[in-house]
Structure formats: structure tokens, C-alpha cells
Specification:
This is Transcriptional regulator, LysR family. Keywords: DNA-binding, Transcription, Transcription regulation. Residues 1-58 form the HTH lysR-type domain. The chain is of the alpha/beta class. It folds into three domains: 3-85, Orthogonal Bundle (Arc Repressor Mutant, subunit A); 92-163 and 266-290, Periplasmic binding protein-like II (D-Maltodextrin-Binding Protein, domain 2, 3-Layer(aba) Sandwich), CATH 3.40.190.10; 164-263, D-Maltodextrin-Binding Protein, domain 2 (3-Layer(aba) Sandwich). 39% of the residues lie in helices and 21% in strands. The protein is built from ten helices and eleven strands. The strands form three sheets. Strands 3, 4, 5, 6, 9, 10 and 11 form a seven-stranded mixed beta sheet that branches. A two-stranded antiparallel ribbon has the order 1-2. A two-stranded parallel sheet has the order 7-8.
């Protein structure tokens, strides 16, 4: 039994098909099938039922898979430990943080780490949508904090970090905000939705909370978006922590739009499994994990 065989099993289960697993792992479908059959032969157990279109874990496979996930996690932790023990202090550590996240916890960690490693330059960028994961996968960030949308789970280590609530809002004098009944998508298509641009190149583009067929105005950051909403020029979703005071003063109000109710977004601290870990990056990683305790 090998770690790679467990990775293949995990990819089949999470993707739902052998083809999906092959695409994720950049292998042929026949290679994926062969590796799973070899694993099943070695342990003398059928892990996946192939009777339906989508392979399904057998009862024994369910138990084996749960344990396999724990083993994979332990292997990743062991690998991280080995890299840390051989690590030296880096000249620079790069972080890419989702624009929706409050920075207080992150800044407290950076301040603490800088005091221990003053010679290391910390590069912090704020990114939107696919921006953080693109920077990570292209080795332009050591650690990111972002959602798991579009993240190749077999390539990364991820730990839950924070939940952010996104609220659809507008100025109280903006026409759709002047009544509380639920506005249909068709009704809202004539009103401009303000959206923050994806900071990625587009190769991993993510799209969330976009009104189909509606008018749009794209900006680069949430500060500009909030100013536009306060100027009564459109509507859109903004993280709750950015508009607490405006909501309390009645300068912005919640909208009731079909398919655009308040949404909770879970963010994770994420790093690549195959990237060397320096002592400063490891210190930041550990302190981020401990920052909510």
C-alpha cells in the first residue's frame, strides 16, 4: 500500500468518477483504475462498487476511506515537520489574503512573527475570488487565506480559519430597497449590480453572487464598492464586518433578492504540500492556527 494509492482513492471519492480523478491528478483513466485495483488486491477488499455510473464506497470501503484520510493527514504533518527541521530563515514570506476577511487576526500574527524574525520581509496582498489560489499554485504565495472553491485538495494542506457573512445591500433610497417583498431576478436585471473584479488572471476564474443577465459595474475593491452603493448607484454583496456602522446608521439596508440571501463564506488557511517550508512561514502557519484559541 502506498501514499499515492490513497491519493488516487481520495480523488475518485471526491470527484465522483474515475475520469474526474484522472483529470485532477493528471493521469490517464486507465492508470487510475489500475492503481485502485492494485490497492484492492493488496488489501483483499473491494473499496468501490462499480455497478452504477458513479463509483460508490462499499461499507468496508467507507471504514477504510475514513482511516485513509487520517493517515494522509498524518503523512502530510510528518512531511511538514521534516521540512521545518531542515529549514532556514527566509528572506521573504508572501501571504495572499481574501479581500473579504477582516485583517486583525492576521496582522496580530504578522506583528508577533516579525518581532522574532526581523530580517524577513513580509509581503501581504489582498486578493479577490481566484486571486489567492492562483498565487499559491504559481508559487507566488507561501500561505493564503481563501475559500476552497476551485482548490485542488490533493495539492494543498488546508485548515478552517474564519467564517465571513456576505450581505446584499443598497442605499435605503435605491428603488429596490424601498419595499421588503422579495425581488425576482427579472425585476433586478434593470438595476446595476456592483461587483469586485477577480484579481486572478482568469484561468481559475470563480463567479459567485452574480445576477444572470443583469447590468454590472466592476470595481477593484470593496471600499470603492461601498462608496458606489452609498451614492445610490447600485446594489451588491459586502462582508458584514465592513458595513456594521452603515447598517446601524441606516445608510445601507438589506435587500431581499431571489437567490441572493445573506451568505456565509468559510475561509481556510492554505499552503501547498510540495513546497519547502521555511522557519518563518512555519511560524506564521502555526500562529494563524493558534490565533483563534
Amino acid at each position: 500500500m502506498t501514499y499515492e494509492q490513497l491519493v488516487v482513492l481520495h480523488a475518485i471519492v471526491t470527484e465522483g468518477t474515475f475520469r474526474g480523478a484522472a483529470e485532477r491528478l493528471h493521469k490517464s483513466q486507465s492508470a487510475i483504475s489500475h492503481m485502485l485495483k492494485k490497492l484492492e488486491a493488496e488489501i483483499d477488499m473491494v473499496l468501490l462498487s462499480r455497478e452504477a455510473y458513479r463509483p460508490k464506497l462499499t461499507p468496508a470501503g467507507e471504514v477504510f476511506y475514513r482511516q485513509a484520510i487520517r493517515v494522509m493527514q498524518q503523512m502530510n504533518e510528518l512531511g511538514s515537520l521534516a521540512k521545518t527541521l531542515n529549514a532556514t530563515q527566509e528572506a521573504e514570506v508572501s501571504l495572499a489574503i481574501a479581500a473579504t476577511l477582516p485583517l486583525q487576526r492576521v496582522l496580530e500574527v504578522i506583528g508577533h512573527v516579525r518581532a522574532k524574525f526581523p530580517a524577513t520581509h513580509i509581503h501581504l496582498s489582498r486578493e479577490s475570488m481566484s486571486g489567492p489560489i492562483e498565487r499559491l499554485l504559481h508559487d507566488r504565495a507561501d500561505i493564503i487565506i481563501a475559500s476552497m472553491d476551485g482548490v485542488p485538495v490533493e495539492q494543498v494542506e488546508a485548515v478552517s480559519f474564519a467564517d465571513v457573512t456576505i450581505l446584499p445591500v443598497a442605499h435605503p433610497e435605491f428603488e429596490p430597497a424601498q419595499s421588503r417583498h422579495m425581488k425576482t431576478i427579472a425585476e433586478m436585471q434593470t438595476y446595476t449590480q456592483i461587483i469586485v473584479a477577480d484579481s486572478g488572471s482568469g484561468a481559475l476564474s470563480q463567479s459567485r453572487d452574480l445576477l444572470p443577465g443583469g447590468l454590472r459595474w466592476t470595481v477593484t475593491d470593496f471600499a470603492a464598492k461601498k462608496e458606489i452603493l452609498q451614492a445610490k448607484l447600485g446594489w451588491g454583496g459586502i462582508p458584514e464586518h465592513m458595513i456594521i456602522e452603515e447598517l446601524a446608521r441606516g445608510e445601507l439596508v438589506l435587500l431581499n433578492v431571489e437567490g441572493f440571501q445573506p451568505r456565509q463564506s468559510r475561509l481556510f488557511q492554505i499552503r501547498k504540500r510540495d513546497r519547502d517550508v521555511g522557519v518563518v512561514a512555519q511560524s506564521i502557519w502555526d500562529d494563524l492556527m493558534a490565533s483563534d484559541s
